[in-house]
Amino acid sequence: MNIINEMRIDFLACPENESFARMVISAFILPLNPTLEQLGDVKTSVSEAVTNAIIHGYGNAGGTVRMKAQMDDSGELTVDVIDNGCGIVDIQKARTPFFSSTDESERSGMGFTVMESFMDEVMVFSEKGLGTTVRMRKLIDAHEDAVAQHA
Questions:
Q1: Is 84 a residue of the active site?
Q2: What is the residue-wise DSSP string for 84-124?
Q3: What is the pLDDT of residues 119-150, one digit of tens each?
Q4: Is 107 a catalytic residue?
Q5: pTM of the model as a whole
Q6: Active site residue 48
């Protein structure tokens, strides 16, 4: 499979940039001609990953979030959301529904569950004190016209 487009962007780990990340990923995948459902799935999953980086990775104390994305000629989108925050000690526990590393009552602990329900694959790589990478993949089926444009 050939990569037909890729991007990387760094932004401050502040709550205002969660919506910025949604806009960036939306613009990036539009050439794949996604359905509205696919677009919504990707935007929601990116929101959850970025929010996790800001709140759990950095504890709302700032830092940098990196988002990398690539699409290939099969219509597969891969998105990495990366932080250099505190890391996740127990990834399996963190992926359990309703688990949260904060005491804030407005947190549902459903971030990974949401990502897993909307994306085809979610992988989490993390090391305590070094940060976390959330890699998400989704096949965008309405991509035929986009691939032809890049051929």
A1: no
A2: -SS--S-HHHHTSTT--SS--TT--S-HHHHHHHHSSEEEE
A3: 999 999 999 999 999 999 999 986 455 455 55
A4: yes
A5: 0.85
A6: yes
